[in-house]
TrEMBL record:
Keywords: Cell membrane, Ion transport, Membrane, Sodium, Sodium transport, Symport, Transmembrane, Transmembrane helix, Transport. Gene3D superfamilies: Sodium/glucose cotransporter. The keyword Transport applies. Pfam families: SSF (PF00474). The chain crosses the membrane at residues 35-58, 65-84. It comes from Staphylococcus aureus. Belongs to the sodium:solute symporter (SSF) (TC 2.A.21) family. Its main location: membrane. GO terms for cellular component: plasma membrane. It catalyses: L-proline(in) + Na(+)(in) = L-proline(out) + Na(+)(out). GO terms for molecular function: L-proline transmembrane transporter activity; proline:sodium symporter activity. This is Sodium/proline symporter. It is a multi-pass membrane protein. InterPro entries: Na/Glc_symporter_sf (IPR038377), Na/solute_symporter (IPR001734), Sodium:Solute_Symporter (IPR050277).
Amino acid sequence: MLKIISGLIIVVFFTLYTHSGFVSGGKLFESAFGLDYHFGLILVAFIVIFYTFFGGYLAVSITDFFQGVIMLIAMVMVPIVAMMNLNGWGTFHDVAAMKLQI
């Protein structure tokens, strides 16, 4: 019974996750290239389906690995570049001491 419930939960939430990726791809093509939103959405869906169908799950896993490596590098580099642009920790502490209200 637990396997069935777990499977249903995975299907529902993975469908929502995939849908959000297609929607964001459609919006990307709309804003970056001036294409119609629906055309961009269909294009992204076609690319994902084509790549998965011909490359298989191994190809998808490899691209996921490289995306993870890129995110890890960005996670390390962003604070370093931010501190360099803030001229060190002094500016960071000055701004933190201001207790800005949003």
